[in-house]
Amino acid sequence: MSETPNIPDPAIIPTFAKCRLAVIGDSMLDRFLWGKVDRISPEAPVPVVKLDRETRKLGGAANVAANIRALGAEVVLFGLNGNDEAGTWMNELLAERGIDSQGMVETKDRPTTIKTRIIAHHQQVVRTDREDDSPVADDYVDLLLKHLESMGPFDGYVLSDYGKGVLTDDALRRCIALAQAAGRPIIVDPKNGDYSQYKGVTSLTPNQKEAELACALAITNEASLTKAGTLLLERTAAEAVLITRGEHGMALFGKDGRQHHLPTEASHVFDVTGAGDTVIAVYTTALAAGADFALAASLANHAAGVAVREVGTVAVTAEQLRSALSEKES
Question: What does the pLDDT read at residue 52?
């Protein structure tokens, strides 16, 4: 397996601003309750967290859109939002970040997906989830796809599948057909173990655990890693598969038989939350701007190294990405 250059050419980064992308999938809200622990509850052996502040961030597909927007590209988000307080917070955050939310469909019978994390002394104490992950009703899917078709075509398409019900089999087929008709790249961050449903996408960005589950094999060495990449290429007819591997970096497999290993660029890992969103955002935006798969993967690898330095979901900016590359050169 060959290694790609450690420092990709940053010349393509300014061209991101000329791109317009669509993100389709499971949007959610990440809520953080911050506090301190100084005693154990007398009612049960659990810590008592004295809260002093609250923060909210975009998560899931919405975080992918935030990352794309931070890179300077235009982005339209397509998904579902509940008619609830969390949905209001979601809309406010989308507006603050300049994300076009005209593709969002409001539902009255499903809550906005919200993950609440309680943090004490920079450590996560517990997380609560409020969600409905059943398949979305056909009427909502039809309305979402109607928005996608009427607002397109786009320079690139992202399918952000968190298994929360938006990307049904029908939605996937129709999204892929729209991207193919436009002749533009469509990239999926997959969650479901049956990757045959993604057949026809341009590329996939599973993490190692997801790739292992999809292929029913343990990735323990280069041979098993290559087997997994080859299997995923065959099952999806994709042009490339990018497997993210945490501290082991990334591995890129092309249908032309070329393989690239990208060692991790993370000097310090504080929180991996949302790192996959950063990867697919940079990877897809670079492809939409005309980069080949190797360059797009290398840029995404450096961006991921920036994202894991902070707590929670982070939208890596074009300037941060340029700075990260400059640090490597110096």
Answer: 94
Q: What share of the chain is helix, strand, coil (3-state, %, to 5)?
A: 40, 30, 30
Q: How far apart are CA 212 and CA 185, in angstroms?
A: 25
Name residue, tokens 């990352």.
67
Task: Say how many domains are in the chain.
Answer: 1
CA pair distance 73, 15, nearest whole angstrom: 9
Of the two residues 272 and 309, the one the predictor is more confident about is 309
165 belongs to a structural domain:
yes
Tell me which residue range forms the domain holding 218.
2-28+59-112+132-329
> Tokens 């975009």 — which residue?
58
Q: Give the active site residues.
A: 277
Look at residue 270 in the predicted model and tell me its pLDDT. 43
Residue whose structure tokens are 């993967």: 297
Tens of pLDDT, residue by residue over 88-135, are 999 999 999 999 999 999 998 999 999 999 999 988 999 999 999 999
**CATH code of the domain in which 228 resides:** 3.40.1190.20
119 is a domain residue: no
Which residue has tokens 């589950």?
213
Residue 48 burial (C-beta neighbours within 10 Å; 0-12, 13-18, 19+): middle
DSSP letters spanning 213-243: HHHTS---SHHHHHHHHHHHHHHHT-SEEEE
Q: What is the CA radius of gyration of the chain?
A: 19
Three-state secondary structure call for residue 76: strand
Please tell me the distance from the alpha carbon of residue 169 to that of residue 198, in angstroms, as a whole number: 9
Q: What is the pLDDT of residue 194?
A: 84
